[in-house]
Amino acid sequence: MKNTPSKYYLTAKKFWKTVVDTETEADPAALQQQIELHKKLLNVFQAGNYFYLVFNMYSGDTDLVGPSVTDILGYQPEEMSISFLMDRIHPDDKPYFLNFEHKVVEFYKALPFEKIHRYKVQYDYRIMAKDGHYVRMLHQAVQIDYDERNFYRSLTLETDISHIKPEGKPCFSIIGLEGEPSYYNIQDAQVFTKSFDRFTKQERVILKGIVEGKSSKMLAGELSISLNTINVHRKNILRKAEVNTPLELVTKAISEGWV
Questions:
Q1: Range of 224's domain?
Q2: Phi-psi region of 224 (alpha: psi -120 to 50; beta: other; left: phi over 0)
Q3: Is the pLDDT of residue 197 over 60?
Q4: Residues 137 and 41 in one domain
């Protein structure tokens, strides 16, 4: 379903067109391969149900939308154009969305080519489901099709975090992978300044596991370390996060954009 583009969509499209000046054909098989690869790189949260989409920067629209969007929002994949999605963002969150997309574009434009694959961006927003209620989505995105001059496509995963963050302002972070610096909870007027990372690399892996609902025993097995070591890390993570319970930790990790 195509609808008349809103001013919000047209403004965002102007941002996107500053990083691409030519269109390329999508290869469905190659896209699916990239999706499976990058879903792992995104460190997908299992804290809620999610759907994925491939975003075409040149057209400002979707090349592919995963079928699970119907389970989460009630819409059919063929309905989910970017214009359609943006029209259904909560009115209070639309300015945040535009600001975040502008910051994403400016960040990637300034990033050296060889570092593009080492970053993911994430922010949250509320979108109206087909039945009329709002769902808070965590948007995670990586670039999957680009060259030294153009950004053609990105893969985004949209995770339902309504049960974790039922209220509060949208939060925007840029997460560095493979040892690159991260920029957490970037504010409206903030320039890109490396955030202090309160957790060690090992603690960050365990924090992600806690967010995903994994037990200490599961984490010990996956990381090949002792259960006692995992529990020590968990205590340190709670202390550094200044929270008392795993539930408080998950909520704060999502709200502050730590994972």
A1: 201-255
A2: left
A3: yes
A4: yes
If one compares 167 and 191, the residue with the highest pLDDT of the two is 167
- Burial class from Cβ neighbours inside 10 Å (0-12, 13-18, 19+) for residue 125 reads buried
* 206 and 148 within one domain: no
Structural domain tally of the chain? 2
Alpha-carbon gap, residue 190 to 102, rounded angstroms: 13
Tell me the C-alpha distance between 187 and 217, whole Å: 37
Is the confidence at residue 54, as pLDDT, over 80? yes
Beta strand 50-56 pairing with 61-65: antiparallel
Asked if 9 and 85 count as a contact pair (C-beta separation under 8 A), the reply is: no
Write the pLDDT tens digit of every residue in 112-123: 999 998 998 999
User: At residue 221, what is the residue type?
Assistant: G
* CB half-sphere exposure, 70, CA atoms < 13 A: 6
CA dist 113 → 117, 120, 150, 182, 193 (Å): 8, 14, 10, 17, 20
User: Looking up tokens 């948007």, which residue turns up?
Assistant: 139
Same domain, 78 and 158: yes
Spatial contact of 225 and 215, defined as CB atoms under 8 Å apart: no
Structure letter (DSSP) for residue 196: P
As a whole number of Å, the CA-based R_g of the chain is: 18
In contact, 124 and 136? CB cutoff 8 Å: yes
Residue 19 lies in a domain: yes
Partner residues linked to 206 by β-bridges:
none
CA–CA gap between residue 68 and residue 150 (Å, rounded): 30
Give pLDDT, residue 129. Answer: 98
- 249 plus 166 within the same structural domain: no
